[in-house]
Structure formats: C-alpha cells, structure tokens
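Researcher: Before we compare anything, I want clean individual predictions. No alignment, no superposition, just each chain on its own. First chain goes here; please echo the sequence and then give the structure tokens.
Model: Echoing the first chain and its structure:
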Amino acid sequence: MNTKRKTPKLTKKQRQRLRVRQVRRQKLFLGLIFLLVLGCIFLRLSRFSGKQTNTYQINASCEAYRDEVTTEATQYGMSDYVDLILAVMMQESSGQGTDPMQSSEGAYNTQYPQQPNGITDPSYSISCGIQELKYALDKSGCTGPADLPHIRLALQAYNFGTDSYFSYLAKNGETSWTTESAQAFAQMASGGKQRDEDDPLHDPAGPWDYGDQYYPDHVLRYYHISSESETS
C-alpha cells in the first residue's frame, strides 16, 4: 500500500528565511542580467561611436630602427621628429622589407629605380624618407612635434607628393588638412578614376584611385605625444 510522504510544515521563521534566500537569488540573477546588458551596450557603443578605442603602438621591427633613425634624423635637423618618423615607417611597412619608409618613388631617391620597392637598402630608404618628410614639414610651416594641424598637412604631402599637393592647396586657398580636400586632390590626381567598391583599398584608403586619402590619421594613431606638449 502506497503512502504519501508528508512534507513537514515549516515554521514561520523558517518560511521567512526561505523567502529571504529566494529574494537574494532573484536579485543576484537580475544583477547578472543587468551587467550583461550593460556590457553589450558598451561594446556596441565602442564599436560604432566613431572613436578609436584601440591603442596603436610601434612594433618591434620599427623600434629596431630607432637608433639608426635617431642618428640619421640628427643630420637633417629632425631630432625632435624621431617618433613621427617611426610612425610613418609603421604605417608604410611595419618595418618590413628593404624600403621601410617606402621612399623609392620620392624625389630624394637618386640611386635606385623610382618605382614601388625600388630601393633595396633599408638605410638608404630611411635617409630618403627623413629628407622627404623634412621637406614636407618645412613646406607645411610646422613649428614643432606637437603642431598637429601642420603635421597633418605634411603627412598627406608625404603620401601624395609634396610639391603637387601644396601647389593644389595654394591654388584652392586651403590652409588645413581635411578629408574633403584630400579626396578632392586624389580625384584630380587620379583623373577622376574611382576605386571599385570591392577594391581592398576603397574603404581604408579612400574612394579615388590615388594614394591614401586618410593618411594623416593612419600615421598619427602610432604617434603619441603628451597632453602638455600638445597644448604648449
């Protein structure tokens, strides 16, 4: 004969304790859900707010050139710009290859073919690149390593070609770098040729088939100066 097991009755005090434990578990569960929702919102905002949340650093390959860059920069009065030179190198090649400054097509390369990766001597590439950057900084009117508005102009000139870019700016009354002016120059220099939407350079380098229309931003993410220097 089956008999039902009787559930022992809880005292009022025991019921209160049980209720407290249940409430605590519910609060803990709701708290975890709340934190999870906040985390998802934060990640979404970080991804789509338009602000860079990553911290970009010069890699070991570029840092390995620091002493050589410092020595070469001193010869051209560029000692204050060593970090900027390394930031350019990082963007151009990540310190890889025989032309780490990608200066083969620049005016200061007189020993090797003026074509992509024509230079086969990293030291010569660094020398040419530093001279090219100095020329662009001088043309921009840059006053020092914290003068970011003029550094932006110089960097875009380094990528586009200094003389032609500054001639375009002067002709059009442009005195500061903007994405719009960079793209307008690239449109002209490319003869109006657009990159295909599936071109891997379309989004990162801009819609026109000439250079990198966002080059200053790409270099400056590797260039870290103190807030004191920036405001001095």
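Researcher: Okay. Second chain, same rules.
Model: Second chain and its structure:
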Amino acid sequence: MSDDELLRVIADFLSLGHVDNIVAMFRQEPCYLAWTGQLLEDERFAVRLGVSVLFEHLVELSPHLLPLAVPGLIGQLRHPVAWVRGEAASVLGLVATSEALTALPALLHDSSPQVVEIVRDILESPSHG
C-alpha cells in the first residue's frame, strides 16, 4: 500500500469515528504523525474533528510523540485556505510544546478573523500563558 493510499485510509477511518484505531496505529508507527498537516486538508469536517480527538488522546497517552507532528502543522499555517490554517493552529495548541506555540503569534495578523480568534484563544489560555 502506498503512502497516499494509507493516508486516505487513515482519513476514512477518522471520518467514520474510528479514532481509537488511529490512536493505536500512530502509537505503533509514530512516523505517521508527520502526516497530520496533510490530514487537515481533507474537506470532510469529520476527518478534521477526528484529528483533534486523536491529538486529545495522544496528549494523554503519548505526549512524547507529539513533536513529530509539529513541522507538518507549522507548514500548514501558510496554507491558502483559512480553515486549514485554523485547524493547524488548533492542533498546535493541543501539542503545546514551545516550538508549536512559538509558531502561532504570526497568525494574530491573519487575513481570516476566525484564524485570529483561534490563535488568540490559544495564546491567552491560562494553560499556555
């Protein structure tokens, strides 16, 4: 199975709500965390919601793996589509490493008011301040 096919399968599983399967998969093969940014490009809201739920689980179960997702997420902060930028910012807020949070202030001047609001909420959160 090619990487593109596997990425599609992961997205399909997330869209069906099978987050536990993907949590187990990412914990077994942490290199898949690098694909997080690509998953956020999926037009299906259920996939993007699944990514957030996935990271909520990983924060509790395997926080040491989360930095593997950061480079791909930071790359999405420059995506031309606002909801991709917003989703990437939200997941970076869940990751909450210094590298993840340091990437966010630049979006306080984003062209999308929703992205600005997401980033402001993350940066003003007591857990990140």
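Researcher: What stands out in the second chain?
Model: The CA atoms of residues 58 and 64 lie 9 Å apart. Additionally, The chain is about 65% helix and 0% strand.
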